[in-house]
Amino acid sequence: DNGYAAWLRYDQMTDEKLTDEYKGWTGELVLPSGVPVEGVLKTAAQELSRGIRSMIGTTPTVTHEASQQRFIVLDVLGGGTWVDQASGIVPALSDEGYILKTIHEADREYIVAAGRTEKGALYAAFHLLRLLQSGAAIGQLNLIESPKYSLRMINHWDNIDGSVERGYSGRSIFYEGNKVLTGSDRIRDYARLMASVGINGIAINNVNVHREETFLITEKLLPDVARIAEVFGEYGIKLFLSVNYAGTIEIGGLTTADPLDPNVRAWWKEKAAEVYRYIPDFGGFLVKADSENRPGPFTYGRDHADGANMLAEALEPYGGIVLWRCFVYNCHQDWRDRSTDRARAAYDHFKPLDGRFEDNVILQIKNGPMDFQVREPVSPLFGAMEHTNQMMEFQIAQEYTGQQKDVCFLIPQWKEVLNFDTYVKGAGSTVKEIAAGRVHAYTHSGITAVSNIGNDENWTGHHLAQANLYGYGRLIWNPELTSEEIAKEWAAQTFGGNEKVQDVIVNFLLESWSIYENYTAPLGVGWMVTPHYHYGPDIDGYEYSKWGTYHFADHKGIGVDRTVATGTGYSSQYTQPNAEIYDSLEACPDELLLFFHHVPYTHQLKSGKTVIQHIYDTHFAGVEQVEYWISRWLELEGLVDEERFRHVAGRMNRQLENAKQWRDIMNTYFFRKSGIPDAHNRVIY
Ligand code: BDP
């Protein structure tokens, strides 16, 4: 089994009793408003038929009038069919929400899978398939589902030459050799996977837009892009494009990209019109400006509101939006000038601009102030701008968390971020509520994340990394789901119902983030990775670097002083009580201690251990944990198909090598630096 089907396997059922039970319900698929010949409802019907055929072995009759005693109904609520009445009053159902309800009448019984819109109906169809796939009882369904976030997006960092920036699973599924891959089935299969977990927007090219990709918004490439958009559209997904801020210079024949220049503004309006001619339901532009050597409004003495609003004005007539990234910091700093702090940058740049952005601009903010480290505090910019739309950016690609060679299930990390209380409007101002536009009244908001897929057969390189993709979609549909619920759902659909298999996979996933943290950089300090590559240890790799990410380890201590009194003052960017908690050596949580404070190695943590002993212990523990999970995985031989069993076992051995390397380098380094021996004499000089 190569893993290509991911969680949409729809394996033939083996339980005969249950198969018979399901057969009774699934013989007929009724679409009261007529069997559609195109559109999202058609997709929903097709998906249901396909899944049912594959699992149960019979193909349902698709019809607009019921003739059997038991059947499934697929519909859009409010369409005036008899389903409206049968469904009763459905409160609080958003546009993309749906119901799944079993209705018993005197002479017939049926399951209604209906959305407020066609998209909702598609999500209902996938939900019903998920229930069937997991062997659930369907005779008494009464589910109402609404997504928490209106924008549920994925960002691809795919380049048109076919490479993927920070890609760990092969090459792009969208491009090769400076061409858009229009005829590929893979794009459709990808859209299916994404729609099945509720994704409704995908930006298909890298935020670092090189010259060739700049043409994606021109007639040269738009016909091809439009074909992808069409496939996406069938699955309820809007297509977005990253644009080159200096497009006017790069391909527009102008000498400036000044956002206030009338010619520049006219060029962007023309481009927007062109894009919408080819893609009427185009989502909008994603922009990385003045960041890591990309062009931006700073060159012209303008600010980011000027830049974003120029694009907003161009997209506004068509309902398009601008996703403007806040990953802006000085990557050319002099490392000897230690008064600067990269963590401060986003807040310092953007907070003063609150209220200046157009309504169709959304600021896209990375979850932490740095860059997707294994542990970071939540970005203090999130929620700090009452009058500016914001959305959260996560990274599904495991750039700093094992690169899909090591297992690191990120749902627990994202849940911590979403549950973080910013207090920006008093207690309860959690990230998850802010992103839903419920703390400040945002016009647009939501969540996005950098994709972890490529053209590897199994999409994500490591089979277990599929769990992050699945889990991301499920979590941003409903952030109240627990990590365990998500891991269980995914494992059951992807690896089948065997209890032992379930137990090993689910528990390994749930522990994996803390294991990865154990054997890598300690206590929130981050960045002890090989520069540029970001896999494997290099303690001082970024220590004397212009990129500005330092840990300040010397023979006396370690950590970054970000306090107000003696440090960079970063802690003051938080609202109280967070500012005070982080600023205080006593109150700061252990796991972020070195992010906020510089301490001697003998500093005692809340756990009772010293910092140095914590470093030693966690690094030994991390390796032992990987060894333990390898032994548990090996117990699954014969219970998981051979191909996936071997593949995962192979990757776990690589993970073990990596963990050992981290352990040995980190422990030896800190032993030499500090001269303090390990309490258990395991660390040798
Ligand atoms: C960093 C990556 C870099 C990206 C950048 C970004 O190392 O490749 O271009 O983020 O988010 O994580 O723009």
UniProtKB/TrEMBL annotation:
Keywords: Carbohydrate metabolism, Glycosidase, Hydrolase, Polysaccharide degradation, Xylan degradation. GO terms for molecular function: alpha-glucuronidase activity; xylan alpha-1,2-glucuronosidase activity. It catalyses: Hydrolysis of (1->2)-alpha-D-(4-O-methyl)glucuronosyl links in the main chain of hardwood xylans. Residues 6-128 form the Alpha glucuronidase N-terminal domain. This is Xylan alpha-1,2-glucuronidase. PANTHER family: ALPHA-GLUCURONIDASE A. Its EC number is 3.2.1.131. The lineage of its organism: Bacteria, Bacillati, Bacillota, Bacilli, Bacillales. Homodimer. GO terms for biological process: glucuronoxylan catabolic process. Transmembrane segments: none annotated. InterPro entries: A-glucoronidase_C_sf, GH, Glyco_hydro_67_aGlcAse, Glyco_hydro_67_aGlcAse_N, Glyco_hydro_67_C, Glyco_hydro_67_cat, Hex-like_dom2.
